Amino acid sequence: MGNERSAGGTGGDGADREPVTPGEYTPREQMVSAAAREIDDGDVAFVGMRLPLIAFQVAVSTHAPTAMSVFESGVVRDDPADGFLHTMCDLSNLNRAVSLTEMTDVMGRLARGDVDVGFLGGAEIDRYGNLNTTRVRDGDRTIRLPGSGGACDIACMADRTVILMAHEPRRFAERVEYVTSPGHGEGGDWREREGLPGGGPDALVTTKATFGFDDGELFLRSCHPGVDPSSVVGDFPWDLRTSEGARGEPVATTDVPTREELDLVRTFDPDGFWTE
Amino acid sequence: MQQDKTTGMAEAVSRIDPGSAVAAGLALEHAIPFAAGHELLRQGIDDLTLVGPISDVLFDQLIGAGLVSRVRAAWTGNVSAGSGYNFRRAAESGDIEVENHSNFSIALALQAASMGVPYLPTRSLLGSDIATEPQFQVADDPFEGEPIVRVPAVAPDWAVVHVQRAAPTGDAHFWGNTGITYEAVRAADHVLVTCEEVVDVSTIKRDPSRTRITREQVDAVVEAPFGAHPSPVAGHYDRDNEFFLEYADETREADGFDAWADAWVHGVDDRESYRERYEREVGRDLSVTEPTVAAEVRYGQ
Fold first, then answer.
1. Residue of chain B whose alpha carbon sits nearest to that of A70
2. Does the interface predicted TM-score (ipTM) exceed 0.90?
3. Which residues contact residue B34 at a Cβ distance below 8 angstroms, ignoring those fewer than 6 apart?
4. What pTM was estimated for this model as a whole?
5. If DSSP codes are grouped into helix, strand and coil, which group holds residue B278?
């Protein structure tokens, strides 16, 4: 299958690295680009569903050719699948994988500390990066969500995690209703005290901005082009710190996707199923 | 002469008693035993406890039919669309009890049962609200003194698994990602194997490294081609993603699920008539586009 656009996208000449104009891409494409850049060459990345599926394929096609992906289903891959992926178990993800194994094998790698970066999503995130995918409150009603899957395991045991979420104020809570996937708990050295082996959340990427963690607390790192920092801060129910307060540096503007990245995103998600 | 365990789906599923704990959907989105699940619906075998990592919509269907009292799982929903609405309704109304797990904790629970030990420890779940649920204990590891979570063994009455091929004896080949299939098979008191193809035992014995399910574990073997649709089976058919999206739309309300089940479960006699109906009314092409064949594997003496 594939797509001829990939040939143009991986040519490696300087033009591919030229930034594209904001407006030429969707917020989710921006998220995929930012997520892909969180994967370093040689990393073992624990790739969940949806946008991280695409982000790994972009990373391994650009700056991280020796990165590996592991999936909780047991799939281990070192290259992009030749075909669109709805889920990690689509046949195109199984075909010509490096290894098709068992969950305890993959989770064992995570438990031993062999996974460099894991990706997470969530319905709710709080001040310290704790994530909830179990149940949320909507007024008097409690809405039941699907649950953890492998997210809690990734959150507990990956060396570092990157969280991807749509930027919607209802998803930001001072304290999540239920901690499905622990972040930095109450901040500071909480993870160490709890005995958690992994390093916890390192970045949050939304459709409007990217965030870091300072002493376990979320802070605004960069805004996507055209987004005003004060509008981002206003979306949070607590007094969100910015890089100005946390690091003494002004809030940056998120790097826009390169032409090459954008072409790859559109190769791996040709109908925009995940990235529209 | 070895025992022939092949039987029909209706007969095999009728051996599952109401009130049983049933593990299914063990290879995550891959090879989910929908044909066996639909026969549970047809026979109305109820008061079930479902055990699994994620089930995609199989658990949602069993819950929607009112057959489930309890779910012990990491994730219950619809992978393509997000929520499973029957699960959501039943959990919110208290019609089902939900024991929350992570994928690794349910894997360890089955692994513990398969090893005959009461629990296994992990450093996953620490600091989460999952760890505070009543089935788990957070304790200090007696050797190093660091906190660990004790995950108690879970031994289902039945594991229901779908594989590519099995011999009448119950010896089976399964390839593609396997999730927690083998832990569940070893943990369960009884195992129902459904397969795309029943083959002679000599076919199985020609590639014994691929045989992780063996006869003494297996109670019944049912030939059920297309038995995992709409989930994929490596080498046979791809995932029918549109099905999952349509199912989400159709089952947003309880009446919608009843209509869906009337058409696709109660409205067909068995998997063969399900397949005929699917090909007549939907007929999406799920065929393998690149028939990759592994390099020859040599054994010998």
1. B177
2. yes
3. B58, B227, B228, B229, B230, B231
4. 0.95
5. helix
Distance CA B57, CA B64 (A): 10
Strand spans (E) along B87-232: 97-100, 119-122, 137-140, 147-152, 158-166, 172-173, 190-198, 211-213, 220-223
How confident is the model over A204-243, as pLDDT tens digits?
999 999 999 999 999 999 999 999 999 999 999 999 999 9
Amino acid of residue B272? E
- CA torsion B178-B184-B189-B195 (nearest 10°) is -20
Which residue do the tokens 């209802």 mark?
A: A170
* Structure token digits, residue A12: 């490696």
Mutation target to probe the A interface, by most A beta carbons within 10 A, among B51, B97, B98, B102 is B102
- Four-point Cα dihedral B227, B233, B239, B243, nearest 10: 10
Two tokens, residue A220: 């605004």
* Residues on chain A touching B54 (C-beta within 8 angstroms): 146, 149
Q: What are the Cα distances from residue B210, in Å, to A85, B6, B261, B297?
A: 26, 20, 36, 11
Q: Hey, are the CB atoms on A146 and B53 less than 8 Å from each other?
A: no
| Partner residue facing A180 (CB), from B30, B104, B128 | B128
Task: List, in sequence order, every beta strand (DSSP E) within chain B.
Answer: 21-23, 48-54, 68-75, 77-78, 82-83, 97-100, 119-122, 137-140, 147-152, 158-166, 172-173, 190-198, 211-213, 220-223
CB atoms within 10 A of CB B256: 17
User: Looking at beta carbons, which residues of chain B come within 8 Å of A141?
Assistant: 92
Q: In this structure, what DSSP letter does residue B27 have?
A: T
Chain A residue whose CA is closest to B291: A95
Is residue A129 within 8 Å of residue B59, measured between CB atoms? no
Provide φ and ψ at A168, rounded to 5°: -130, 125
Tokens (6 digits) for A31: 């998220």
CA-based R_g, chain A, Å: 18
Task: Please write the tens of the pLDDT for every residue from A24-78.
Answer: 999 999 999 999 999 999 999 999 788 999 999 999 999 999 999 999 999 999 9
